Amino acid sequence: MKETPGQLRVIIEGLKPEIDSGRFPIKRVVGEKVSVEADIFVDGHDAISALLLYCKENDPEWTEIPLEPLVNDHWRGWFVVAEPGCYRYTVLAWIDQFKSWQRDLVKKFQGGQGISIELMIGAHLITETSQRAPKLDRQKIGEWISALHSTQVSEQAKVQLVLSEELSQFMDKYSDRQFATTYPKELVVVVDREKALFSTWYEMFPRSCVSGSGRHGTFKDCEARLPYIAAMGFDVLYLPPIHPIGHINRKGRNNNPVANRNDPGTPWAIGYKEGGHKSIHPQLGILDDFQSFVAKAHEYDIEIALDIAFQCSPDHPYVKEHPEWFRWRPDNTVQYAENPPKKYEDIYPFEFETKNWKELWEELKSILIFWIEHGIRIFRVDNPHTKPFRFWEWLISDIKKSYPDVVFLSEAFTRPKVMYQLAKLGFTQSYTYFAWRNTKQELTQYLTELTQTQVREYFRPNLWPNTPDILTEYLQFGGRAAFMARLVLAGTLGSSYGVYGPAFELCENRPKEPGSEEYLDSEKYEIKNWDIARPDSLKDFIARVNRIRRENPALHRDWGLRFHKVDNEQLICYSKRTDDLSNVVLVLVNLDPHHTQSGWVEFPLEELGIDPQKPYQMHDLLSDARYLWQGTRNYIELNSQVVPAHIFRMRRRVRTEQDFDYYM
Amino acid sequence: MKETPGQLRVIIEGLKPEIDSGRFPIKRVVGEKVSVEADIFVDGHDAISALLLYCKENDPEWTEIPLEPLVNDHWRGWFVVAEPGCYRYTVLAWIDQFKSWQRDLVKKFQGGQGISIELMIGAHLITETSQRAPKLDRQKIGEWISALHSTQVSEQAKVQLVLSEELSQFMDKYSDRQFATTYPKELVVVVDREKALFSTWYEMFPRSCVSGSGRHGTFKDCEARLPYIAAMGFDVLYLPPIHPIGHINRKGRNNNPVANRNDPGTPWAIGYKEGGHKSIHPQLGILDDFQSFVAKAHEYDIEIALDIAFQCSPDHPYVKEHPEWFRWRPDNTVQYAENPPKKYEDIYPFEFETKNWKELWEELKSILIFWIEHGIRIFRVDNPHTKPFRFWEWLISDIKKSYPDVVFLSEAFTRPKVMYQLAKLGFTQSYTYFAWRNTKQELTQYLTELTQTQVREYFRPNLWPNTPDILTEYLQFGGRAAFMARLVLAGTLGSSYGVYGPAFELCENRPKEPGSEEYLDSEKYEIKNWDIARPDSLKDFIARVNRIRRENPALHRDWGLRFHKVDNEQLICYSKRTDDLSNVVLVLVNLDPHHTQSGWVEFPLEELGIDPQKPYQMHDLLSDARYLWQGTRNYIELNSQVVPAHIFRMRRRVRTEQDFDYYM
């Protein structure tokens, strides 16, 4: 017979949220709720008390929150996470003899049965409990017990006494938890700062940030570009690698395997004699220039995100200094990186299975620490799915122990299980398949998976309509209307989204060749000269969408997303709401970039707190037009050649003669 | 940095079946398959090898079964459990360097790239692997390596060699598992004998087994009743408690709180001065009579199941010998058992929270051991949900260690989570809500939950249309047709089912009072005198249904259950099939006991291996009629006043002039 006491009778199971039996933490940002649910029950008919326990990592004591029973033995409680870092939570439950006794006493009393023995039992329970109470409470207890024993007090009054809030609270506070069941796992929530969940990204090649000139841009030039980026409303500026670029096997324009003398090479071929991952490409400036640029960006409320690509050009100093970090073949060469069918002759991968893996891992960590110490707190990690999962888990958790405000964006475009695994083991945000989800059905299915299933507990999507590697067919064929539609979708479906500019705002959509997703004359292999002042630029439209995002809290979160019916496959309709329904945004997008489309939309007014019998106002935040609607079905029409979307803020109701103000 | 080697790169997750993070075992019977699935993947593009490992408890070594990759990083394999007892299973996976190399070599060769370096790497891999191989294989290895190095052998021939089955098998066998990932849990499957899953129960009060007389039946009389029970095709005969019955607070007829002198009391008020749970009620006979009865039943292929009710009449010897096993109130009484609003004044519950819980638990176990040693292997456990879960988990696992063939049926009619918990912690079979599921929607929803969700891994339903405590309204109002319909439903929806007889076959349906589910003049409180020879008895119909069950393997299992469409809410249609489709049974039941109902049924012929373009034969095993049907939609009509059901065996196709035999 096991030595665990036979008196432990309560079962706690099915606790949520819990990822993979507690193997991985869930994620929240500061100020968010953690709502915890569990099935809690016991044999027989005894009453249960249950608590949600939580604490900040290393806190000496749990904070206790009562769990409330719902239906079918299911209980729920919640807490708010106040600071970045890690919190732990679990559940505790026990048989509450006093509550069982209270319940049965009332039944017997109401059924007209004698309760004199029950009252004696109750007095006994109070005496027993009082032994766990501090002395100060003792006098009150004496009064209760003598009242229960007194022949002068009516049964009615005794029942009132035992049901009184004061007595109940006392019995609750000192309840006997000796045989309480604790859920066998302590679960973890990683708490990030707000930007982990609500962020607006702009990707830019610093060397191309000089308009009207073919020269190599510098960090000084980048500073001059900041007002332009800030005016569009971006708050994260992500730069491809800024390190020295290798010469051996350097790529020419359009990925030509042979480079011309003046070709700059791709920034991802990191390392040359001037240095590697901790150095700055000389043509961009020096470390001081970089730091001045970072500080300047800060003045515009823009954070700089660096690209972390753990790979080397064949001229990287590591190759000579640490040959044991690479896999050498029988002919004394290193196999260059491949992502079939793509070949990267200018890049050596690290050999993570090297016997010297510990030294390698430590060195890679030191790269992050170096940039963190130079003021960087956001990293976009290049191809994390080609490095071991355990490496990332160790690296991210180790760094976040000292720097809980660091944000890691996983740039993995690969199989779903692998993308989710990277998110589980610690990446703060993740790129998604959004670029390839273009139809109503595709978008609905994918975003529902991301925002309404367990995935949302650990995977924070960052939606990108384009990147330097991804120019989708939808953008190639759909022209300006397609760029506008995809911008609205990304910016309203995702609390975090980003674009690769100025290619995006200038609607750059010429592919390298038909069927390719590569750009013609890709910026990856050459310095571009973007005319950001072009009158057809989408910069003002982007600024508008980003202002709408900032001003509407519903768009700062993803869990409030719901899709609604439209009787036209080219039109998609969805809403986002805050928990308290104080902000509800309804978005309609015409997915057909060529034609005007119209249809009837249908949405659950009552769920949104709107009386279907009364008119309500729809305020289109893109055009500033206001419409009066009534009922669950309303007609809409969108001309892609003008603006292919509405972003409505729903206003609750329309003024009547009884009202003082127009709208809530 | 953790000391786990950084080279462990493979992830194994989402393993199924796994109940509550592996806290509970799954269940199978001898000869069943355990199909195991998991998500298995690695960073990058390396090939993986994966094994399902399983062993009988205490086997020194795992048996290894290769897992096969399906889509989306999902892998599957299976094994068959051959003996009763416990098996363990888990999964192992590693990066297979040789398979990765083979795959890449073929790609390069087919792409016309040079492969000379790759062939050197291959030779190196073979050499490395050979160091793990026994000496006998070495000569062959030498041949392979020199062929790969030889300038006389063409590249084409070298590629053929490295793809050869012999070399691949060798490399597979001695693959480097040094950095293999093992799934962190070993999971358990409890294997029972066949009867745990396929059983046909008959409940009978032994004291009422004398027809045509008011006297108290004995085990000798029970022996005489065996041919009758065997003829109906039952293979488990379950007896309510056979122990001495208490006198204090004995219940009279119809649960009267005051008994007359001749009232026999309920058999669940266990214990009197003659003895308790290990004794036999004197009026039934002595232990020898019981053993002779058990042996006689065995000759008829009937197993006797005893009722285990862990509770005492106030005269049970335990009450005096072990007062510490009961909860005494301030007035020196014990609170009798209650299941509100039911009161059992003739029964004391044990106090499982007693400080002497260990002694109590051991004594209760000794009761089971006593009856096991007297040849009993099936126990129907009374109200297990009013005793602690941990008690049952300990008791059942402890007993099954020595007696893996023991079957425990859980008689818990309570909240769903509690019923499922009892099944998880070890009960072999469970009573269900079947008695109260009477409409098509109710039956479809409930049986789908039981047979098509994870519940089926641990909860084995035993379907009872009636019990001595449950006479449903459907039976009260529906008459004979209702009994026939419920019998067919129980016997074909459930591989295990049972009836309480002779009440069932005699269609006894008079309630104690309107709105009550208690029988009028319930057998629980008096000796009944059943006229089993009545011409309107359902005994022949029951015999037919039970023969159909025996002869059709599809009805021996529950996972093959599928519901099909009928355009009439009073008609329900479902099929059961064996895995290999060699036996497919289609059942149609008219749920309306009063009227003839007709409609069109629709079922997925192709899924069942039938050509929808050709006619096929439906053989009604109840009436022996045969019908020719074609296509997915067919008309049916059922007259409740004759037989309210069809049990069709589907025969694949109808003879044409090309065929020799009529039917497959």
Give your account of this protein's structure.
Two copies of one chain form a homodimer. Chain A has 664 residues and is an alpha/beta fold. In chain A, 27% of the residues lie in helices and 23% in strands. Chain A contains 14 helices and 30 strands. Chain A has an eight-stranded parallel β-sheet. Chain A starts with 10 loop residues before the first strand and ends in a 13-residue tail after the last strand. At the A-B interface, strand 1, helix 2, helix 9, helix 10 and helix 11 of A face strand 1, helix 2, helix 9, helix 10 and helix 11 of B.
Oligomeric description of these chains? homodimer
The portion of residues forming beta strands of chain A comes to: 15-25%
Q: Between the first and last Cα atoms of chain A, what is the distance in angstroms? A: 66 Å
Instruction: Extract low-pLDDT stretches of chain A.
Output: none
The gross shape of chain A turns out to be globular
Number of helices of chain A: 14
Lateral arrangement of strands in the main beta sheet of chain A: 21-20-19-18-13-12-11-22
Helical content of chain A (DSSP H or I, runs of 4+): 25-40%
The major beta sheet of chain A can be summarized as:
8 strands, parallel
User: Quick one: which chains have the greatest interface?
Assistant: A-B, 55 and 55 residues
Number of strands of chain A: 30
Give me the secondary-structure category of chain A: alpha/beta
Please tell me how large the radius of gyration of chain A is.
31 Å
Mean pLDDT of chain A: 94
